[in-house]
């Protein structure tokens, strides 16, 4: 199967492919969205192996449950994001996962000793990482809650124990900050 | 101007994250349809979100894409994926020597044999599953075909009976043929009523009537001693190609057709399209 087309397909073109049950849609979806979906999953489960398995599950679900997607309710992107997010959150709730997590944490603290010599793999992310670190921690926390965990503004307010109005203002400024970072 | 403010309000980010209520999401959708720059902004946010989510995330392994494609291909084509059962590495085997040597050899043979058996039966099981699935599928296909054929047969029989009945009605002298020509409101229209007063049977044949608009339907009335009596509504196609059986009417001086809302009315709505006296 031919892959690696340079031009990106628009959402409605991909939706049309999915409606026709054309399997080329999977290739396109992977090329265009695997980074975002994997990013969300990895940020929630914090394990590459689990994240890759869940990404695979996400694509299978997208393919099998596509008939439940309602374009009236939102973007295909958002719908896929939701699937990825829910699979990842479900995973963190399973007990087996919690045990593995503990073992990993021990591994991590052992490895942390010589982490100074670690090579960062994604060079083009270094710049972005530094920029994202410009966000105030509370701003980043809010963005993560909304983007990775799918918290509504009201849920975020409850989680952080601050009034809804305050959360709305903070999210607004955090998103503004993020927009600035990306447009520069 | 308005679109700019909207874009910087932060609502688009929440839309992409999927955390808005249905009404709010609908509003964003409307704005995106109205302003191309809002749609562009949404696509930009999706790209930026991917970048944000990818910070400090290791790259995906080579070949994952192909694995996913293969998995979905297998699901679609209903091909069972044959996987070798995983043989766990046994620590006892590593570095075994001396007097346990023969024991090791025997264990290896046993494990290999067992793995082979596993594989053999697993494959058998998988192909049996596959056969079963395809047989079930075939059965479904046959059932569906049978159902379609018998339905077709029923339809054919019904239309044959209709035709036979029509011939009887046409040729039976106990049925009065009443012509209903178009009134001044519908010149050129024409319908016929075949009426058997003794049996109270009424059949309607439409020669020419304008197609009713959506939500409307024609209704036949029998005028009995100056009062219109409902003789039923009818479908244009069945009354044009064949005859429509109407409600039983015993005595009437006249038949008339009016256009009514779907399902018919209690009393006729003017104008009358066609009308004819019974004698």
Tell me about this structure.
The complex is a heterodimer of chains A (184) and B (279). Chain A has 184 residues and is mostly helical. Chain A folds into two domains: 11-93, Rna Polymerase Sigma Factor, Chain: A (Orthogonal Bundle), CATH 1.10.1740; 96-183, Arc Repressor Mutant, subunit A. Chain A has helices at 11-19, 24-45, 48-64, 76-93, 95-111, 123-132, 137-147, 153-160, 164-183. In chain A, helix 2 (24-45) crosses helix 3 (48-64). Chain B has 279 residues and is of the alpha+beta class. Chain B contains seven helices and eight strands; from the N terminus they run ααααααβββββαβββ. Chain B has helices spanning 2-8, 11-17, 22-34, 36-54, 64-77, 101-171, 236-241; strands spanning 176-181, 190-196, 201-208, 216-224, 227-234, 244-245, 254-261, 272-277. In chain B, the strands form two sheets. In chain B, strands 1-2-3-6 form a four-stranded antiparallel β-sheet. Chain B has a four-stranded antiparallel β-sheet with strand order 5-4-7-8. In chain B, strand 4 (216-224) and strand 5 form a beta hairpin. In chain B, helix 2 crosses helix 4 and helix 3 crosses helix 4. The longest helix of chain B is centred in the middle third of the chain and has 71 residues, at 101-171. The radius of gyration of chain B is 38 Å and the shape is elongated. The interface between A and B is large, with 55 and 42 residues.
Please tag this protein with its features.
heterodimer, A: 184 residues, mainly alpha, Rna Polymerase Sigma Factor, Chain: A, globular, B: 279 residues, alpha+beta, four-stranded antiparallel β-sheet, 7 helices, 8 strands, elongated
Q: What is the overall pLDDT average of chain B? A: 83
Report the strand count of chain B: 8
Measured between the Cα atoms of the first and last residue of chain A, the distance is 37 Å
If helices are DSSP runs of H or I spanning 4 or more residues, what is the number of helices of chain A?
9
Proportion of β residues of chain A?
Answer: under 5%
Large-scale geometry of chain A: globular
Structural class, from secondary structure content of chain B? alpha+beta
Helix content of chain A: over 70%
Count of the separate structural domains of chain A: 2
Numbering strands along the chain, what is their spatial order in the largest sheet of chain B? 1-2-3-6
Sheet with the most strands of chain B?
Answer: 4 strands, antiparallel
Q: Give the number of DSSP strands of chain A.
A: 0
Average of the residue pLDDT scores of chain A: 81
